């Protein structure tokens, strides 16, 4: 208790130097929480959107299907067995058929991916209900990014050309039945969604699919010849990106923290040099050298505690405001090829705040202890004379 009282007295007596140390350390404290909150918010939003719009509770892939190898699409398809078809009818799975094609918007040619999906499916958030047949024309769905790329809108006609199962080319016009807005580029960019049965007829692949998306009540596991891919497997790339972003941000707020800790270190060194006679007096009054070391170490801890209180004073309303209104991103960021919303809402969990508090207090305590160690080697006589070698 005596060490804490003396620490507060000495810190208050330092005046403006104390305020600067606390201000810099509090800024680093708030930045650490804000940055990690933004990354955690992005991670939460991206995982939720990817699950709702693309992967469901997992997917069953054809053994030769590789989403990064367009050439694999030609052979990555198989008919549904009676067992799998029963799961589809129960709503546990929804099949998707994938094929390469060319689109000709305004006379231009552009490579696209055709994806067939059941208009009545309820597993994915894709508005597939708009794909119900209309007046003998085949309806098509596109995302907002795709609509901007090919300069088309709802109600427009689009000519597409494809090659069926036997290698025969064919073409027809589809009508854009709807344009949906989604944060998941892998179901938007360069893709056209068609009714599943229509695409099966176009490709001469009756009853076939490339993959199946699992719903909430799917029990999991492979279903010959389909290979089950779990959410963890399908979200692995996103997890790597989040980890790399956290690592990059750690460099930035690590530098801020080092600057703040360096200021505390210099303050402690100067304090020990200027308070030599005070240190000698403590020892003369019967305090052990390590008790004196404890006084200076506690001073560093008090710096961190005051910095946390100051950070909470101005940081809490700022962090609450960003969590409520979100952080708007530039328009170009949505074209990065990863799931990212136009506005990210940070998530400040109790674990994040507690871990940051422990980091700041522990780092400040260690930095204060390092210069104070010299006191433990003091000669009592030199200490009384105010001499520190």
Structure description:
This protein has helices at residues 2-13, 16-55, 82-89, 144-150, 196-203, 231-234, 236-274, 276-284, 289-325, 350-372, 380-385, and strands at 59-61, 78-79, 93-104, 110-117, 138-143, 157-163, 169-180, 191-195, 208-209, 211-214, 227-229, 327-328, 343-344. By secondary structure, it is α+β, with helices and mostly antiparallel strands. It has two domains: 2-51 and 237-385, no CATH class; 59-229, no CATH class. Strand 6 (157-163) and strand 7 form a beta hairpin. Helix 2 (16-55) runs antiparallel to helix 7, helix 2 packs across helix 9 (289-325) and helix 9 (289-325) runs antiparallel to helix 10. The chain is elongated and about 100 Å long. The model has no long low-confidence stretch (mean pLDDT 82).
Please outline what is shown here:
Helix 1 (2-13) packs across helix 9, helix 2 (16-55) runs antiparallel to helix 7 (236-274) and helix 9 packs antiparallel against helix 10 (350-372). This protein has helices spanning 2-13, 16-55, 82-89, 144-150, 196-203, 231-234, 236-274, 276-284, 289-325, 350-372, 380-385, and strands spanning 59-61, 78-79, 93-104, 110-117, 138-143, 157-163, 169-180, 191-195, 208-209, 211-214, 227-229, 327-328, 343-344. The longest helix has 40 residues, at 16-55.
Blueprint of the fold:
Elements: H1 2-13, H2 16-55, E1 59-61, E2 78-79, H3 82-89, E3 93-104, E4 110-117, E5 138-143, H4 144-150, E6 157-163, E7 169-180, E8 191-195, H5 196-203, E9 208-209, E10 211-214, E11 227-229, H6 231-234, H7 236-274, H8 276-284, H9 289-325, E12 327-328, E13 343-344, H10 350-372, H11 380-385
Parallel strand pairs: 4-8, 5-7
Antiparallel strand pairs: 1-10, 1-11, 2-9, 3-4, 3-6, 3-10, 6-7, 12-13
Helix pairs in contact: 1-9, 2-7, 2-9, 2-10, 7-10, 9-10
């Amino acid at each position: 208790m005596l060490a804490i009282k003396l620490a507060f007295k000495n810190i208050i007596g330092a005046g403006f130097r104390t305020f600067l140390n606390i201000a810099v350390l509090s800024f680093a404290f708030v930045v650490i929480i804000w940055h990690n909150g933004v990354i955690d918010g992005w991670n939460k939003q991206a995982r939720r959107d990817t699950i709702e719009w693309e992967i469901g509770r997992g997917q069953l892939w054809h053994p030769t299907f590789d989403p990064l190898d367009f050439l694999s699409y030609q052979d990555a398809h198989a008919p549904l067995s009676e067992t799998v078809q029963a799961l589809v009818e129960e709503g546990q799975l929804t099949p998707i058929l994938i094929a390469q094609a060319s689109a000709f918007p305004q006379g231009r040619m552009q490579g696209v991916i055709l994806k067939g999906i059941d208009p009545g499916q309820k597993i994915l958030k894709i508005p597939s209900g708009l794909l119900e047949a209309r007046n003998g024309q085949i309806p098509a769905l596109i995302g907002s990014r795709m609509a901007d790329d090919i300069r088309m809108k709802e109600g427009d006609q689009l000519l597409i050309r494809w090659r069926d199962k036997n290698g025969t080319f064919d073409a027809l016009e589809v009508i854009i039945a709807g344009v949906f807005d989604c944060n998941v580029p892998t179901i938007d960019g360069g893709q056209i969604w068609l009714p599943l049965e229509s695409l099966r007829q176009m490709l001469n692949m009756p009853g076939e699919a490339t993959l199946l998306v699992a719903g909430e009540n799917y029990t999991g596991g492979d279903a010959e010849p389909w290979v089950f891919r779990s959410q963890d497997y399908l979200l692995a790339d996103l997890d790597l990106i989040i980890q790399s972003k956290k690592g990059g941000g750690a460099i930035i707020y690590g530098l801020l923290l080092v600057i703040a800790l360096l200021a505390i270190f210099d303050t402690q060194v100067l304090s020990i040099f200027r308070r030599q006679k005070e240190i000698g007096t403590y020892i003369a009054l019967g305090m052990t050298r390590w008790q004196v070391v404890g006084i200076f170490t506690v001073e560093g801890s008090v710096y961190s505690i005051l910095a946390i209180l100051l950070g909470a004073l101005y940081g809490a309303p700022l962090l609450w405001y960003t969590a409520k209104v979100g952080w708007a991103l530039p328009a170009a960021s949505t074209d990065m090829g990863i799931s990212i919303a136009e506005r990210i809402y940070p998530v400040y969990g109790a674990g994040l705040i507690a871990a940051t508090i422990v980091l700041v207090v522990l780092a400040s305590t260690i930095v204060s202890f390092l210069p104070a160690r010299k006191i433990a080697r003091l000669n009592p006589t030199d200490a009384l004379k105010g001499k520190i070698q």
